[in-house]
Amino acid sequence: MATTPASQQAAPQGAKPGPMKRILVIALIAILAAGAAAAATWFVMSRHPAGVPAASAGPAAAAPALPVYYALEPMTVNLQSDDGESHYLRIGLTLKLDNQATQDALVARMPEIRSRLLLALSNKHPSDLAPLDGKRALATELAVLISQPVGGNERPMHVDDVLFTEFVVQ
């Protein structure tokens, strides 16, 4: 009579899981991962309408057009003086424009624009240009002067900003 101890009889039942059990566990994990990915995709896609990127909420949030910068040649003008001394202003300007068509129109009218700028600048006093607020007011005034139409049937041009690249009062 051959007897086997109890510990040897229990070993085959709970020892190593078979290859079928491993495959089932791996398949179950893969199905759960695929379901989680599908749920996340559905959640993200249901929050945004089809064809609209997540970054933009509508036509108002479309990517803004890049501005066009146009540098004018530096100008030197005599300033008005009440003290009898000669004062000069050397100024360099760069215009921030909304599009290339505006730049083309400005280039075509550049002699008139430079004349307007020189006349306006030569009418300034050095004390008006010294403070920061005076420089800001001058930039606004120059933007208005540049955007004014030359002829009666022209429409005004849009100048976003006048930027100083050189500003020396002597």
Model description:
The chain has helices at about 5-15, 20-45, 100-110, 110-120, 125-130, 130-145, and strands spanning about 70, 75-80, 85-95, 160-170. The mean pLDDT is about 80. Strands 1, 2, 3 and 4 form a four-stranded antiparallel sheet that branches. It folds into two domains: about 20-60; about 70-170, Band 7 domain (Tetrahydropterin Synthase, Chain A, 2-Layer Sandwich). The protein is an alpha+beta fold. Helices cover about 45% and strands about 20% of the residues. The termini are far apart.
Q: Which residue ranges are poorly predicted, with pLDDT under 50 across at least 5 consecutive positions?
A: none
Globally, the shape reads elongated
Note the run of SSEs as H and E: HHEEEHHHHE
CATH class descriptor of the largest domain: Alpha Beta
Main sheet makeup = 4 strands, antiparallel
Q: What number of domains?
A: 2
What CATH architecture label of the largest domain applies?
Answer: 2-Layer Sandwich
What structural class should be given to the helix and strand makeup? alpha+beta
Strand content: 15-25%
Gap between N and C termini, in Å? 123 Å
Write the layout of secondary structure elements.
Elements: H1 6-14, H2 19-47, E1 68-71, E2 75-79, E3 87-97, H3 100-108, H4 110-122, H5 126-129, H6 132-147, E4 159-169
Summarize the structure.
With 170 residues, this protein is an alpha+beta fold. Helix content is 47%, strand content 18%.
Features:
single chain, 170 residues, alpha+beta, Tetrahydropterin Synthase, Chain A, 4 strands
